[in-house]
Design brief:
The complex is a heterodimer of chains A (624) and B (197). Chain A is built from 23 helices and 23 strands. By secondary structure, chain A is an alpha/beta fold. Chain A has four domains: 215 residues, Rossmann fold, CATH 3.40.50; 112 residues, Rossmann fold; 175 residues, 3-Layer(aba) Sandwich (Rossmann fold), CATH 3.40.50; 71 residues, Alpha-Beta Plaits, CATH 3.30.70. In chain A, helix 1 runs parallel beside helix 2 and helix 1 runs parallel beside helix 7. Chain A is globular and about 80 Å long. Chain B is built from seven helices and six strands. Chain B starts with a strand and ends with a helix. A six-stranded mixed sheet of chain B has the order 2-3-1-4-5-6, with helices on both faces. Chain B has 197 residues and is α/β, with parallel strands linked by helices. Classes of the chains: A alpha/beta (624), B alpha/beta (197). Chains A and B meet through strand 8, helix 11, helix 14 and helix 21 of A and helix 1, strand 2, helix 2 and helix 3 of B. Strand 8 of chain A pairs antiparallel with strand 2 of chain B, so a sheet runs across the interface.
Chain lengths: 624, 197
């Protein structure tokens, strides 16, 4: 069957008999645990969306301590959040297989950096395994669980975007029977990391690391495809796929030896030494950092080899690898005079205008940012818009430009705490999503109360983790299965930690939203204390999908061309993608894109936007 | 060479991933290896989206610049943006639809300007009113299947996947979508025959 790389990993985990999976969604890792959610009940295993990666890691770690095979999955920067328990997990080891999937994002398709998490393997003494395709991802995931179980040691399965988000053929095998419950055996000298225990555990960990180094020498997913003794290419992960096709396209597949590596940390020393010592020249092709390249050079130095070793001097270090980049590097290295593809030689006079991602038509965040800016201007406040990670990050683009800083999950509230005290002329306005608030926003908010930071926190509560594909969270009220869940109220959290000004608004009501923001800014100026505004409206995509499913018609708006003056407020300042300028700059609404939110009616100063067709009365009830 | 590179271009939300996924599943039914490289998350929200579909003897999921045998654009500006993937024998299927990028002050080129540029580039262009036909089939979201119908009618996928294989995949969809998609596929297939006649 055809599976996405991430789904293939989920399948491999099922075949390995996992009893536990926990994660926080993050591109490109999300679909692993999403897929496991779909079969959790049927298999009788525990699968959860956790509040953040640290909790997801800890919970999965505990399952493995208690003898249950467990998986946690996160995007590369999620591992930073989980790094504290991660760094100690190799000291204690585990009782059953514990696999941490790190989905790295070279090229930064959906991320703030392109850190190479193979470093974490070296740093934390956790072996790193890398599949090159969805097909291999399934089998490798299964094998890594066996490895981790055998070694009683955590293991990384590292993918990159083009493995996680590539669909390909996968052949299924019989799953092991899952074991969902275990029994925790008390061993304080192992599970409590007081210095006296840790000193012993560190020595034992290094002994295990030696053993792991020997094991990876015979790991079945590494292999040498031998062709001659002149040139060898060493490739790991997705780079292997690019290398094979590049050699084919360049017509030199039968002249170059390829060492395919699935175990990159620790690297299989003997295998690499064998290739180094049997070839004159070696090129290492790996995505991001030169980890294998440096290892190969170290081995060559220690063994006094004079093999020529190249890597990042030919293969780009920045950005993801592609077939084109790898083929270009190999062609240059072998002196082949370029790649075999010839793009059309035509410089178009009509340039395609840029099309960055944008807030969707009917997105509640659009109303919030529009009203927020008006309120801030009216109050005469100089704002610092301290931004965060989620769909609302898109407000960094014109026309809003209302994300002055954006660093990491929860960073909006943390940075606002600093700005509030050092830049007294301005008021920091943190904008943070509902899921991000639960993930890492709460400690910053408590800090603001305790340290009296005059700042506004706006929680953009669209009732779901939207950007990664609509996963529920503690405020949503349901599980991925649709079953009802306890609700943690953002307002109650804010009040509970001591915020005095907490207002909830509907961002589809611009006047109400503006008023609440102005009230909050007044409060901050008057008392010097923080305030919270919760902007509450479900993600339009969810409501849209529900409406389609149930055959419920949304209202449709249209522009009265006699009244429209072509001022452009609706398509420029408000920038709804469903509204475009037509002849002479007058506005027109695309009925295939309009979601019926009606906020543009409030935005138009000429009352030119009117209801063309009222919605089904049921439509209003779909919002939550 | 026994491989075929099909680049899908469009705007996030137009159903490119569904289109690619149907092609991949048809590949499995017909014993053809297919790799699909997709874009998810942030890069999907109403922005430009490229999906790479490779058939045959392939290990890398990405199509190199100048390496597309076929470009299928669900939106015309995105066809122009995909120019770098085209070579002189590339077949380009363009939906007759322009979606203005959502940036203040942006002026979108017209469909005619875009088709003229593609013509000047020397590639073979077939323009198809896919969104109109999709609405006729029951939903504007089915423009992806109209384009797939048209692509199958060109014969470019012969030897890799067939209309019958694609129909088998569409048969497995929920009833409401099955009907719309099969109709969209049929209309697309017919439309291409008319264009070429």
């Amino acid at each position: 069957m055809v599976l996405l790389g991430n789904e293939a990993i989920a399948r491999g985990a099922i075949e390995a008999g996992i009893g536990w999976a926990s994660a926080y969604p993050g591109t490109p890792s999300t679909e692993i645990v999403e897929a496991l959610h779909r079969v959790a009940k049927q298999l009788g295993i525990h699968v959860e969306w956790s509040t953040n990666e640290k909790v997801a890691f800890e919970a999965a770690y505990a399952a493995a301590m208690a003898g249950v095979r467990s998986l946690t999955a996160m995007k590369h920067v999620g591992v930073n959040v989980a790094a504290d328990p991660l760094m100690t997990s190799a000291y204690t080891g585990v009782e059953e297989g514990f696999v941490i999937v790190t989905a790295d994002d070279p090229g930064m398709w959906s991320s703030q950096n392109e850190q190479d998490n193979r470093w974490y393997g070296l740093h934390a003494f956790i072996p790193v395994f890398e599949p090159y395709s969805p097909t291999e991802a399934k089998d490798l995931a299964r094998e890594v669980f066996e490895f981790s179980s055998r070694m009683k040691h955590p293991a990384f399965l590292r993918t990159t975007t083009r493995v996680s988000h590539t669909r390909g053929p996968v052949t299924l095998s019989e799953p092991r029977k899952p074991l969902a419950t275990g029994s925790f055996r008390k061993q304080p000298e192992r599970w409590t990391i007081v210095p006296a225990h840790a000193r012993v555990l560190r020595r034992r960990m290094l002994e295990r690391w030696e053993k792991i180094g020997e094991e990876v020498e015979r790991f079945p997913f590494n292999r040498v495809e031998r062709h001659g003794t002149e040139v060898a290419v060493i490739a790991s992960g997705i780079a292997y796929g690019h290398v094979i096709d590049a050699l084919e396209e360049l017509g030199v597949r039968d002249q170059v030896t390829v060492l395919k590596l699935a175990t990159t940390v620790p690297a299989p020393r003997k295998l690499i030494l064998d290739v180094l010592s049997s070839h004159k020249r070696v090129l290492v092709v790996e995505e991001l950092e030169p980890i294998i390249e440096w290892e190969a050079k170290r081995i060559a130095y220690e063994e006094r080899l004079d093999t020529e070793i190249h890597g990042k001097d030919y293969v780009p270090r920045v950005g993801e690898l592609t077939l084109h980049r790898v083929a270009s590097a190999i062609a240059e290295y072998l002196g082949l005079g370029g790649v075999p593809w010839r793009p059309v030689d035509h410089e178009p006079k009509v340039k395609p205008p840029p099309r960055p991602p944008t807030l969707c038509p009917g997105c509640p965040h659009r109303g919030l940012f529009y009203a927020l800016r008006r309120a801030v201007n009216r109050a005469g406040v100089k704002p610092i818009y301290s931004g965060d990670i989620g769909c609302y990050s898109l407000a960094v683009l014109p026309p809003f430009r209302m994300q002055d800083t954006m660093i990491e999950m929860g960073g909006s509230v943390g940075l606002a705490n600093g700005f509030a005290h050092v830049d007294r002329e301005k008021i920091p306005v943190a904008t943070i999503g509902d899921s991000t608030f639960f993930h890492a926003g709460i400690p910053g908010l408590i800090n603001a109360v305790y340290n009296r930071s005059p700042m506004l926190v706006v929680v953009l509560d669209n009732r779901v983790t939207a950007m990664t594909g609509h996963q529920p969270h503690p405020g949503t009220g349901f599980y991925p299965t649709g079953e009802p869940a306890p609700v943690v109220s953002i307002e109650n959290v804010a009040r509970g930690v001591g915020i005095e000004y907490v207002e909830t608004v509907d961002p589809f009501n611009l006047e109400e939203t503006e008023k609440a923001v102005q009230g909050a800014l007044d409060h901050i100026r008057r008392t010097g204390k923080p305030a919270v505004v919760v902007s509450k409206r479900a993600c339009t995509l969810l409501v849209d999908a529900a409406a389609r499913r149930k055959g419920v018609e949304a209202p449709l708006y249209t522009v009265d061309q006699d009244k429209c003056t072509g001022c452009g407020i609706c398509y420029n300042a408000f920038s709804c993608p469903a509204i475009s300028p037509i002849n002479g700059g007058k506005a027109a609404i695309d009925p295939t894109l309009c979601t019926g939110c009606g906020v543009c009616v409030q935005v138009c100063p000429h009352d030119a936007i009117v209801l063309e067709r009222p919605g089904d009365p049921e439509w209003e009830k779909l919002w939550f | 060479m026994s491989r075929l590179n099909v680049l899908l271009a469009g705007v996030g939300g137009q159903g490119l991933i569904t289109l690619a996924s149907v092609m991949a599943k048809a590949g499995v039914i017909e014993g053809t290896k297919v790799l699909v490289a997709e874009t998810h998350g942030l890069s999907q929200r109403g922005g430009s989206v490229e999906v790479h579909v490779r058939f045959g003897r392939v290990e890398s999921p990405l199509i190199p610049p100048g390496g597309a045998h076929v470009v299928v654009a669900l939106e015309a500006i995105e066809a122009l943006r995909s120019l770098k993937y085209m070579n002189h024998s590339t077949l380009v299927l363009v939906n007759r639809r322009v979606i203005r990028p959502n940036l203040p002050g942006v002026k979108a080129p017209s469909l005619e300007e875009i088709l003229e540029e593609l013509g000047k580039a020397g590639v073979k262009v077939l323009d198809i009113p896919a969104t109109d036909l999709a609405i006729r089939a029951g939903s504007s979201l089915a423009a992806n299947m109209v384009m797939l119908g048209a692509l199958l009618a060109t014969g470019a996928l012969d030897g890799y996947i067939s209309r019958g294989g694609v129909e088998k995949v569409l048969e497995t969809m929920p009833p409401r979508w099955r009907r719309v998609n099969l109709e969209a596929l049929r209309l697309g297939y017919g439309a291409l025959r008319e264009t070429e006649a």
